[in-house]
Amino acid sequence: MENRIDIALSEEAKQKILDGITAIKTQMPFLLKISDTERKAMQLLDDGRKPFVENAIDLADRNAAITPGTELLAACQRDFTTYSSLVTIENELMQLLEMVHDTKQLAGAEAYEVSRFIYMKAKMALKMKVPGMQTIVDELGKLYKQSSTSSDDNTKSAAK
After folding, report:
1. Which whole-number Å values give the CA distances from 15 to 22, 28, 108, in the listed order?
2. Contacts 24+ apart (CB under 8 A), 154-160
3. How many distinct structural domains can be found in the chain?
4. What residues make up the domain containing 88?
């Protein structure tokens, strides 16, 4: 058994992190949620379409004949600037989320591996007739069976 991660995240540190996340949310009160139906109906901007939008805004800014109106063009420019800023923020958050997810997965896997080892040792101790082991084996056995069943269900759901 290798223990690659051995840290203790204090409640104080956890609270500071959560406060930081709240501070980020506070800086972005304009964030919203769109429905799947809305998302499917949208023509989305991506890296391939970005030069088109940049050129269209630039050309409309310099050619009155194709300007959709100063207010609409200004709103379009703000939207594009917001989009560009959010791409950068999203990339940083995705990297952070990936690291948090991977660290969480590793910490959980290591804790589960050691817990299974403890259960195995308890079963061995029971076979060796160590007093009091039946209760421990029964308790851990119930919980292990429940966790294995829910894990199997998750695997089956993911495979569908």
Report:
1. 10, 20, 20
2. none
3. 1
4. 11-159
